[in-house]
Amino acid sequence: MDITTPAPSISVRERNAEAKNQAILEAALTLFSARGFHGVAVPEVAKLANVGAGTIYRYFENKEALVNGVYQHAKTLLAAYLFDDFDFNQNPREKFHSFWSRLRQFAQDKPTHFRFLELQDHAPYLDVVSRNLEIQSLAPILTFCTQARAEKIARDIPPEALMALIWGAFVGLIKAQDAGYYTLSESTFQAAESACWDLFCPPSA
Amino acid sequence: MDITTPAPSISVRERNAEAKNQAILEAALTLFSARGFHGVAVPEVAKLANVGAGTIYRYFENKEALVNGVYQHAKTLLAAYLFDDFDFNQNPREKFHSFWSRLRQFAQDKPTHFRFLELQDHAPYLDVVSRNLEIQSLAPILTFCTQARAEKIARDIPPEALMALIWGAFVGLIKAQDAGYYTLSESTFQAAESACWDLFCPPSA
DNA sequence: ATAAACGGAATGCTTATTCATTTTTAAGAA
DNA sequence: TTCTTAAAAATGAATAAGCATTCCGTTTAT
Q: CB contacts < 8 Å between A and B, how many?
């Protein structure tokens, strides 16, 4: 008998609860990313999560809270992909490459998360927490654009617009692949990166 | 009494029907563009169109047919903005400028149409006619990209990917404005155009 | 006067949410 | 350890609200 363990800090109860929470979030992510918020019924989420319909309401106040939970989960994961262990001592071109690669990794590893985030972006049912998370998680990139602008490296365009152009280009690339217009190869991805870098800073400089 | 007019070729009935059809399409466009297909109730469309709920079903078989009607209407208008009286004898840079300006004009004149088309793109409830219209209306741009590629003017990237990057960049620019991140000025639009042109073709050439 | 078009209440189905009941967990007594 | 039991968690049928579509009495054009 082990008297060094007074009580398990994580009870069976907590463990189960965590697993269930995850199962619900994952099921909701899958369905919302395919058909959008209004296109999915809550009992359907319950079924996919192998959970009773009532159980969802023990974890989330209502359907809106559920979609916000999924949003915050996905956005946090994206931020982790983008910024964890990021080396801010790189030169601008290297930083750009890091962002591009990390974004690509996210889109490849977590296509459902990526699609979900694109679909729900700026939806009217997103709450204050979700909106702040959106702004926060883009802030480092905006800072990068602003600095590059100040250093006369980036183009003379408002940094927000620069960021929007490049983010939009990336999203367009992924969406067109999703839509079946082509299959992205490694070399196409690299070529797209340098094309976007040339969008970012004037070619002659 | 005027015996020279045997019968009016357009009856009051036909005229009213046309007006009603338009009113329904416009109301549906407004609501769908704001809240998506599943987020809008048909009687709500009827109310905004000043029409009885039943009347909608005299013009459209069901809700799906309605959203497809709106889609086809909007996509056709976009194609008109993009291609009507287009001068295909311009050089590539001039053609690019024409496309960019026309797309901008559409986004400015018809922001609701633009938003609707972005929101419903590749939605599972779009029918064959809508999907074909999508492909058809982008074909001239794809042809432009393919030709520019063949003439070694455009970057060495699959033309579909090039188009996706530029289209995506444009959409990103407009969406970020919609989201309130900034207000687009004339000069920003021009700068964005040349940035995208540099994305399109290698800067050194 | 007649036939088509219209309107909007009525119908029947779907769905968000609740709640009474059952199952599971934690902890102490035997 | 095994049994007992109170509390927490989970369930899914039931409730209530919402919605797509229909239908029939009314209006309108010819």
A: 136
